[in-house]
Design goal:
Elements lengths: L2 E10 L7 E11 L4 E5 L6 H8 L7 E6 L2 E2 L7 H7 E4 L12 H11 L4 H14 L16 H13 L5 E5 L7 H17 L3 E5 L3 H7 L2 E6 L2 E6 L1 H5 L2 H6 L6 H11 L11 H15 L1
Parallel strand pairs: 3-8, 3-9, 6-7, 7-8
Antiparallel strand pairs: 1-2, 1-4, 4-5, 9-10
Helix pairs in contact: 3-4, 3-5, 4-5, 5-6
This protein binds adenosine-5'-diphosphate.
Adenosine-5'-diphosphate (ADP) binds next to strand 2 and helix 1.
């Protein structure tokens, strides 16, 4: 499903003394199947933006199109949209409540009106996709580790087979290993399916590693919307708004300044390692 926002504005508490213009004239397109990263400091409008994507909140003005259909037109099937756009909130494990993992993951498909057999099939498929070991399927969600709980919560959304998966800081509060596992799993899911993935993160490292494109939010507006390398080339401007390029980008700039002929538009550790090795070989 392709997504297009046109001149979208959102104002909290409109018409009161507490008005807050949280999204300002947002226009952007997310083609079907893309992996997009959304980044920005706290309060820049990321959560407000993603809540529009499955119709949780309605724009004050402007339009939001899915496959060229304006979801704000009368008669648009919002229920169907919510089935197709899966939103994983921050700390989704707070919403785990069923007696065991299987039952919990079945909750979404059951709500979609599917019968018990199909729900179970969906749940099994989703749990496999998130890489949770079978021995946990009958456990209470509350007995699991933080990373495992997160997987169960993501499986609960995947079991509804969304076409668009939106994740709000899916690694918040996890240790580095748990973080990498979850993100690798999401990247794998994206590769294996034709799902559009929208990942909100405050980690430049994570976004640089996984996203095809980055949307940088600043004070309710889109500051950059481009490929990671192009966005991080603006690292000085990013710093001015309290953001930064991945640390490795700075290291490459330092190495170049100290005479090692490396490319500076490197954004991941793996890429940096290759580039440094090649530069050293060139120097010899
Ligand atoms: P982010 O997700 O980037 O931290 P948010 O979308 O949560 O940003 O917030 C954008 C702006 O809207 C902030 O200034 C925030 O204080 C304000 N805001 C968020 N939620 C509400 C709300 N329910 N009522 C009023 N203002 C809000």
């Amino acid at each position: 499903m392709s997504i297009r926002l046109e001149h979208l504005n959102y104002v909290y508490s409109l018409g009161t003394a507490y008005e807050k213009h949280a999204l300002k004239d947002i226009s952007l397109t997310i083609p079907h199947g893309e992996f997009v990263g959304i980044i920005g400091h706290t309060g820049s409008g990321k959560s407000t933006l993603i809540q529009h994507l499955n119709g949780l909140i309605k724009a004050t003005s402007g339009a939001l199109y899915y496959n060229d259909e304006n979801i704000y037109e009368e008669g648009y099937n919002m229920r169907e949209l919510r089935n197709q756009v899966g939103l994983v909130f921050q700390y989704p494990e707070h919403q785990l409540f069923e007696i065991d993992v299987m039952t919990d993951v079945c909750f979404g498909p059951k709500n979609q009106g599917l019968g018990p057999k199909e729900c179970k099939e969906r749940a099994l498929e989703a749990l496999k996709l998130v890489g949770l070991k079978e021995k946990y399927y009958k456990s209470s969600p509350f007995e699991l580790s933080g990373g495992q709980k997160r997987r169960v919560a993501i499986a609960g959304v995947l079991a509804m087979r969304p076409k668009v998966l939106v994740l709000d800081e899916p690694t918040a509060g996890l240790d580095p290993k748990g973080r990498d596992d979850i993100l690798d799993q999401i990247a794998y899911l994206h590769k294996e399916s034709d799902m559009t993935v929208i990942l909100v993160s405050h980690s430049m490292e994570d976004i640089a590693r996984y996203a095809d494109r980055i949307i940088v939010m600043n004070k309710g507006s889109v500051m950059y919307n481009d490929k990671p390398k192009k966005v991080f080339a603006h690292y000085q401007e990013l710093e001015k708004v309290g953001l930064a390029a991945p640390q490795v980008t700075y290291i490459m700039h330092d190495l170049k300044e100290h005479g090692l002929p490396v490319k500076v538009d490197v954004t991941t550790v793996e890429e940096a390692a290759r580039e440094i090795m090649q530069a050293l070989e060139r120097k010899e």
